[in-house]
Amino acid sequence: MDFDLGITLALAAIAFAAAFVYGVTGFGAGLVAIPLASLFFEMRFVLAVFALLDCVNAVRVSLSRPKAIVREEAARLVPTCIAGVAIGALLVLALPAWILMLALGLFVTAYILYTLAVRGALPTIGTRWAYLAGLSGGIASAMFGAGGPPYAIYLSMRPHGKEEMRATLAVTSLVSITARIVAFGLAGLLDSGAVWRTALAILPASLLALWLADRVHRVLSREAVIAAIRVLLGIAGVSLVVRALAIA
């Protein structure tokens, strides 16, 4: 697939913005990248290119502070995430994607409304909720590439610092992204040389954004990071509802 320098620079700018959001919060790159990049290329091409970039982003954030990963949380989230991806792949064949997309969008939107209604700090939830978060995140990731919100909701209501939240979110999302890349490879979406050339061309912008996001993240308080996550979750919830209703 051919593209000119102007479009390449535009994609690089999108990759920069998406990676910056991901570097600060640990999720949300797809909320920025996919709608904007699809203005230039067809959706399958965009999903394949940014799946590769998302994988690099997740590895970079996970390895930047590996000691910050809350291994107990990851041990609960990752297995159920993998199970969720498998279930999601089956549900794609059995159910219209818009039904679960709508359900997830309504759930995330309801959570945001709840956070606005509750005064003060949100309550801390128990570890048993990790299994539901991992499962639903895996299902959402497999069905429509939006696995981050359930993980973010769960970890934002656990007693972890901002570094622990970001690192654990990153390693959990890495599992979802890797599974997605495997699925794309089996479907032949990664066979095109244009996918790899485009990803390599805009990768430097993504890495630069992660470097900058690291420095911004250091000066933000936990409350500021939580606020940023809630804004992204609000966007995700509304976006999922709109997308579901559009294809219903």
Please summarize what this structure is:
This protein is mainly alpha-helical and 248 residues long. The protein is built from ten helices and no strands.
Q: Describe it for me?
A:
The protein is mainly alpha-helical and 248 residues long. It contains ten helices and no strands. The protein has helices at 5-25, 29-37, 43-64, 71-94, 97-117, 129-144, 148-156, 162-187, 193-219, 222-247. α1 (5-25) packs antiparallel against α2 (29-37) and α6 (129-144) runs antiparallel to α7 (148-156). The chain is globular. It starts with a helix and ends with a helix. 44% of the residues are buried.
Label this structure with key terms.
248 residues; mainly alpha
Number of helical elements: 10
Instruction: Compute the separation of the termini in Å.
Output: 31 Å
β-strand percent reads under 5%
Q: Which H/E pattern describes the elements?
A: HHHHHHHHHH
Judged by helices, strands and strand pairing, the structural class is mainly alpha
Shape: globular
Radius of gyration, CA atoms, in whole angstroms: 17 Å
Helical fraction equals over 70%
Unreliable residue stretches: none
**Average pLDDT rating:** 82
Biggest sheet descriptor: none
> Number of DSSP strands?
0
